[in-house]
Known about the structure:
This protein is of the alpha/beta class. The chain is built from 35 helices and 28 strands.
Amino acid sequence: MKPLTIMVRGFFMMKTFLQEITETIYSRRGSFDDIVFVLPSKRASLFLKQHIARLISKPIFVPKTYSIEELIQTISGLEKLSDLELLLNLYEAFKPLLSESEIPFETFIPWGTTVLSDFNEIDRNLVSPTSLFTYLTEAQRLKDWGADKKATPLISDTLKFWSQLPEAYERFQKKLLERELAYQGLQYREAALKADEFVNNNTDKDFHFVGFNALNTAEEHILDFFYNNGNSTFWWDIDAHFLDDPIHEAGFFIRDYLKKWPKKSQTIRNTGQPYIQKESIKVIGVPKAISQVKHTGQLLDDILNQDQVKEHNVALVLSDEALLDTMLGILPESSSKVNITMGQPLIKTGAFHFFDALFQMYLNVSVNGWFYKDVIRVLSSPYCKKLSGDPRDNGTSLTMFIKTKNLLFLNEKTIQPVAPSKNSILNQIIKGSKVSSEDFITLCQNILRALKDSYEASRQSLELHFLYGFYRLFNQLQHHITTKPYLNTLRSIYPLFNELVLNEQLDFKGEPLGGLQIMGVLETRNLDFETVIITSVNEGILPAGKSQNSFIPYDIKKVFGLPTYKEKDAIYAYHFYRLLQRAKNVYILYNTEPDILQGNEKSRFISQLLTDNAIAGHIEHQIAAPEIKNQRAKAKSITKTPALLQLLQERALQGFSPSSLSNYIRNPYDFYIKNILRLNEVDIVEESIAPNTFGTIVHDTLENLYQPLLGKTLDSNYLTSLKKEVKTILERKFVEHFSSHEIKNGQNLIAFHVIQKYINAIVALDISRTRSNEIVLLALEENLKINLNIPGCSHSVVLKGKLDRLERINGTLNILDYKTGTVVPSEVEINALEECVVNEKHSKAFQLLCYALMKQKETRSSILFAGIVPIKSLGGGILSFAQKEHPRGPKNHHIEKELLMNFEQHLIQLIQEILNPEIPFTESESSSF
């Protein structure tokens, strides 16, 4: 990032909105007796009381304060249930209307949440449910009415759903009201009915409604009673700059309220229009979310190091609350205190991923047992490794056992050889593949207790906080599965688990009136700060855009006066601009490289700011991006130390294979890693056949198939009879190299038939060759080895290899090498011998010459043939080695003694280079780029 230069000028902090209200009321009345404050949130009431405490010099009773939700609950007399309880009650209201086969609980939750949201909107806005549901049903009927006038089953089911909504709505409300319980919308509807009585019973109180913006219909109805009764005052917080502009979104609602309730409305207009008298507004574009977090950390560090800045007057507002975790990791040391107003969702914790993996492990179990990936996902969790104090019993041995044995599915019998000790919690996890929902909850509770003991011993309080959240969650689930018979399977409680982790939050403890304030947009209501940093100001995040969780179409919402995304955008516009009103220094960050999951282009609010002439002299737009230096990667190089030379000598005595020498030609550094250090790739379980396993099965099948023909002349009739044995031998080789039950379906079944086709094609090729040639099969998978005399080398060097097939064709030895990969003729054809020891493109020719050299020294043959059998493309026949004097010249397929003598000299030079202590193993340029 570019270095930051931040100036926070000294100034006297303008009075906050809440401070102005308390001082105005106190100057008029001289006390706060019989006053009731109603605010948008509980948090605002805390700051309000702080301002009252600063005004009063003697002990008083604190004025009564309500959040709007608390006031509604008080008026309605109904207790709001949790979202989970509401979903369960809604399901029970729907259940008699639809058969269980039509609406199983696990499929109900996703759309049940949407139905509940719509019920809330309907009741909060006092819409007639009968009229709306009738309208919806008829609108759906018109929409689905086709030219043939026949309803499909899907259309019939959809219409049935809409037609049953009114009855489900009535049953749901009746069920709740009988127990004096409610969802939020029902509280609002009931409060609207009882508001008149409540107001008449509280005529001795002076109600002050503070800092509201967008009221729903029920709230407007209730405030009407207070307004008409005469014992209330409405305080609106808006800058004159927004209020006087008839089209500015920030004043969209308040302009109407001032007309509706003119007598009792007190507007804190901030006479001096502080919005246009700022020190500065900086709009900063930063690529990607993580860069925003890093840039915010630098901003905070520089801001908090200014002497005149007080931490409690600095607010960090996270439009995208998912950034909280990352943001906590970059807070500067200069921040002595931090107050976080937003909670940590359980879904954002590591414990969620562990328990989700455990759920998936048991949900995905099949007749074959647990799927290996689900098991490894559980075993590799840090929580699993914490479950046992014994390092040998932490799941590592079981994970390695799975990979070594290439087990795709596991059960109690399969893992018995490495099962954890009976007293281990891991043993409980893998005890049985089939469990009831009650047994699973008990298992999770046992895991939590074991983890609690471990984290208490290491004093990791944050992890204990997370675990406590899940302990409460599983206690809730346990309560419901004992009382709800339809929650008797894992598949039915898994959606409940997801619903809980999505909505449950772990609150952070802190001093709300001190320290750096980290909050979401809605937590800023009624609060003012000197310095404000707002992150992720992109379309789709701030404002949220057109996304809405509702079954009610936009046009029907407009007809019935329900809020649409336009009203929601206006709400966020108000919150955004209100944040800017009294702040002297504002930093607005947005993502310059957004994607579909993290919002779109920069927010329209930014575009409005940048084109607002009233603040043109105070706003600055800049792009902050990390400095990128385009450097070519430096090639890796390994110097040959005495220890490495000793290891080279050992490898030379053991033998270099043609393929290992080909690795050196391609990339000396890879040769060092794979063939000298012998560091292989990490073992993985093969769900489908890997290329190396594929090749092994092909080679072994051919060896078994042709074994009876060793030493014999190939006969077309006999070869034809061999085709009958291909499938049997191939099945046996699959069992040896792969799990037997895994060739019955899927990709492995396809691979089985592909290999069978390849083997049959090779047999067919041999049948064709026997018609014009006499072929005697001499060897299969023959091990070859020779000693090479390397000038200047004090020890022997061995060249070794395994020859796939040796035959005599018309009296001449013929070497054949099977290749399951793609091979082209140019790879086995050379113009000059030097090519095959310096150019990796001729690696196949190099390997054939190595085999020919080893066989020539053994048999003293004067002439040989050698070729590649390209198993994937046998249509062109065998690709024979050939040497040409020039690219378009005639091909000489004979490998003569003189050619091999010359090749041996080039091979010796190659090995001398490998053994030369002065030449390091350096990565080739093509690999390091």
